[in-house]
Amino acid sequence: MMEKIGQLDQELFLFLNSFHSDFLDPIMFTMTKTWPWIPMYVFFTYLIMAHYKKESWWVFMAVGLTILFADQTASGLMKPYFERLRPCHEPLLEGMVHNYGYCGGGKFGLASSHAANSFGVATIMSLTLAFKYPWLKWLFAWAAVFSYTRIYLGVHYPGDILVGALVGILSAMAGYFIMKKVRDKIYRSNISDKNLF
């Protein structure tokens, strides 16, 4: 069963990875990096501080926990455990993979840290701010495109992305839950504070 899933994952990867062009290569390579998105993260910081004011640090704690859980689960736990080679490191796919730039940060790709972190950010922003700014739910579309760059560049299978996305979503839910539990315990005597989130 797992062998069949792996085969289908490879076939889907080769199909999605085949859509490339000389024009898009440097664009996708830039999009997959962190620095182009710094203005967006700064804007999120502003939204959090503008809405939560003195309580902002609780949200930043949840964001920090989300990134910590997502990144460590994907890179620190899953990649060394599963040891699934990235497509660009897979000998059976040699000559079939469009790999632009470099072949990721290590030999193994399950699960995608890019997907885990981006879907984690999209989820924690939705949990903490989407009730005020509903358009933030579009962050899931950004996370999907951001994650797709990894397939385009030949460094992740679609399965790596899907598992990474799940890790990110669950990490955000855990970060939010922990933040809220700790906060509610500290402010349990103040009903108005408890209703802030």
Give a quick precis of the structure.
This is Undecaprenyl-diphosphatase. The chain crosses the membrane at residues 34-52, 58-77, 135-155, 161-179. With 197 residues, the protein is mainly α.
SSE map:
Layout: H1 2-17, H2 24-31, H3 38-52, H4 56-82, H5 113-129, H6 139-152, H7 158-186, H8 191-194
Helix pairs in contact: 4-5, 4-7, 5-6, 5-7
Mean pLDDT: 93
Number of strands: 0
Oligomeric state, counting identical vs distinct chains: single chain
Measured distance between first and last alpha carbons: 43 Å
Question: Number of DSSP helices?
Answer: 8
- From the alpha-carbon coordinates, what is the Rg to the nearest angstrom? 19 Å
**Which overall shape is indicated by the principal axes computed on the Cα atoms?**
globular
Query: What number of domains?
Result: 1
How helix-rich are the residues, as a percent range? 55-70%
Major sheet size, sense and barrel closure = none
Strand content bin: under 5%
Transmembrane segments: 34-52, 58-77, 135-155, 161-179
Pfam family, one: PAP2
Keywords: Membrane, Transmembrane, Transmembrane helix
InterPro entries: PAP2/HPO, PAP2/HPO_sf
